Amino acid sequence: MKIALFGATGRVGRYILKMALRDGHEVKALVRRADLEPHPNLDLIVGNVRNEEDIRRTLQGADAVLSAIGTDRTTTLSDATPLIVEAMEEEGIRRIITIGTAGILNSRLSPGLLRYQGGDSKRQLTFAAEEHEKAYKSLEQSDLDWTIVCPTYLPDGEPKGYFRFEENYLPEDGKEITAGDTALFAYEQLDSDDFLKSRVGIAY
């Protein structure tokens, strides 16, 4: 498969990249600097994920898109997502799997609200969740076959290969999930239609 990858150098994205190359996929990754280890199946596009032309170059020829763009206290995610959606629609690419946050899953405490709005999350700062919600809305309003993988607290760690997941909600009493297992679950969605056009909460 030919995969376009955004956020390849981030905490989750680097695991996705490793898995895709291990399995023989061709990966085109948009990066700020070409400082990833060379690989015959890896094509690095040096550019900016906020730049429409750089996104188009990354998407060219892709069968599917994986995005692990973080928030990093910037609007990168909400700026980039609509550009990716538009470019995908023009290129005729339908499948996109992105990494979100548990804050944009449905609230169990306040029906009709998201977790970050409904008091489910103890986090006081909502900037990251608001950014992820804007990205979610961009995907929701599109015609793409999207899936947003929404981890709760995300420590670093290699994939163990087990996790609990639930469509549109965080699994009950879910406290954390490593970056490696979040990447593994997202990567496995390339071969799955289970969560098309939906968010999926993931935790141990």
Summarize the structure in words:
By secondary structure, this protein is an alpha/beta fold. It is built from 6 helices and 8 strands; from the N terminus they run E-H-E-E-H-E-H-E-H-H-E-E-H-E. It has helices at 13-22, 52-59, 76-91, 115-118, 127-140, 179-188; strands spanning 2-6, 26-31, 42-46, 64-67, 95-99, 145-151, 164-167, 198-203. Strands 3-2-1-4-5-6-8-7 form an 8-stranded mixed β-sheet, with helices on both faces. Helix 1 (13-22) links the parallel strand 1 and strand 2 (26-31). Helix 1 (13-22) crosses helix 6, helix 2 (52-59) crosses helix 3 (76-91) and helix 3 (76-91) runs parallel beside helix 5 (127-140). The model has no long low-confidence stretch (mean pLDDT 96).
Distance between the termini: 29 Å
Q: Tally the helices.
A: 6
Can you tell me the residue ranges where pLDDT is under 50 for at least 5 consecutive residues? none
Question: Largest sheet at a glance?
Answer: 8 strands, mixed
* Count of extended strands: 8
Mean pLDDT across residues? 96
Oligomeric form of this entry? single chain
Q: Considering DSSP H and I runs of 4 or more, what fraction of the residues is helical? A: 25-40%
Elements, N to C (H/E): EHEEHEHEHHEEHE
Radius of gyration: 16 Å
Categorize the overall geometry. Answer: globular
Widest β-sheet, arrangement of strands:
3-2-1-4-5-6-8-7
Residue fraction in strands = 15-25%
Helix and strand content put the structural class at alpha/beta
